[in-house]
Amino acid sequence: MLQTLTKLARIVGCAGMATMLAGVAAISGAAPAAATSRIKDLVDVEGIRDNQLIGYGLVVGLNGTGDSLNNSPFTRQSLQAMLERLGMNTRDAALRTKNVAAVMVTANLPAFATQGTRIDVTVSSLGDATNLQGGTLLVTPLLAADGEVYAVAQGPVAVAGFSAIGDAASITRGVPTSGRIANGALIEREIAFSLAQLPHLRLALRNPDLTTASRIANAINDFLGPGTAAATDPATVRLLVGGSGKYGGDVISLLTDIEQLRVDPDQTAKVVIDEQSGIIVMGQDVRVSTVAVAQGNLTVTISETPEVSQPQPFSETGRTEVVPRTQILVDDQSGNRLAIVEGGVSLQQLVDGLNALGIGPRDLISILQAIKTAGALQAEIEVM
């Protein structure tokens, strides 16, 4: 650790870094805490998943903030079809209402949701409606990917945003054309899945990794016995339900105990860069090989300070003139030098040192990308 700090001190070369190095040295003797996680937080169990639902409907009762029927033909057709089903023919009528809006309704059907239970739905405007506040969604069937109806939604729409418009100004907060209906959909059909009848289960890793998958399989085998679990690929651990005889086929109790086992997950060395906001996120295993780094910018400053020239008193031929005065300064930061970054210095130590020199996030991003191009950054860079 002291050798690494010495390398970093040569990289930075500033007096202000001494205090930071002293603080790092003071805490270097502390043992790192084990960053273990529950298997429950690392994997998804096969079959325990949500299903997405979607539907098309009408929101009525809007205070003149709905769709313009001339600009939204689908709203006009839907309104006419609904009225015909209720026994009214409006095909030849001139509809001018602004209190109706066509919307898309979306929801997530939870795993093992039973018939008769309720779920939340999200309502989003499809036409040129300006506000859904005060509206009521009419009966809307919600379909899954197979085209079957699994739920029916209806109810008053709750909108978090608002919009106020005056003659000379307007203000909008949030998104008034989108809202939610709490418990707004009633489940009409269940998705059949027999979890307890499966001879084996697959645990899908949320962050696929060979080492993590192997550690999960080893933790399960240590708890239940050899041969119960095996990592088939970086994203899957295969669990043999019949191999855990003490549970007597009780899959729920088996999964409950397995979910609480703790594993130390591994992660790849990665640097995530958001160029728009200048945010840099890095993993602890990122390392930098020996490389030379120099950073400098060319800054040109131009300032105009015009002066007024007055003629001598009682002069018959003189006149007032504006004399331009221009000052140009060029700063090429000639004092900057190449810094040698020796192998073994972590990326965190490098960034801390560059920050101590006053290098901002934008320059850090450019330096890290240049180091990666040179092949000295032992990590994957992901630019958002």
UniProtKB/TrEMBL annotation:
<dbReference type="GO" id="GO:0030288">
    <property type="term" value="C:outer membrane-bounded periplasmic space"/>
</dbReference>
<feature type="signal peptide">
    <location>
        <begin position="1"/>
        <end position="33"/>
    </location>
</feature>
<comment type="function">
    <text>Assembles around the rod to form the L-ring and probably protects the motor/basal body from shearing forces during rotation.</text>
</comment>
<dbReference type="GO" id="GO:0005198">
    <property type="term" value="F:structural molecule activity"/>
</dbReference>
<protein>
    <recommendedName>
        <fullName>Flagellar P-ring protein</fullName>
    </recommendedName>
</protein>
<comment type="subunit">
    <text>The basal body constitutes a major portion of the flagellar organelle and consists of four rings (L,P,S, and M) mounted on a central rod.</text>
</comment>
<dbReference type="InterPro" id="IPR001782">
    <property type="entry name" value="Flag_FlgI"/>
</dbReference>
<keyword id="KW-0574">Periplasm</keyword>
<keyword id="KW-0969">Cilium</keyword>
<comment type="similarity">
    <text>Belongs to the FlgI family.</text>
</comment>
<keyword id="KW-0966">Cell projection</keyword>
<dbReference type="GO" id="GO:0009428">
    <property type="term" value="C:bacterial-type flagellum basal body, distal rod, P ring"/>
</dbReference>
<keyword id="KW-0282">Flagellum</keyword>
<keyword id="KW-0732">Signal</keyword>
<dbReference type="Pfam" id="PF02119">
    <property type="entry name" value="FlgI"/>
</dbReference>
<keyword id="KW-0975">Bacterial flagellum</keyword>
<dbReference type="GO" id="GO:0071973">
    <property type="term" value="P:bacterial-type flagellum-dependent cell motility"/>
</dbReference>
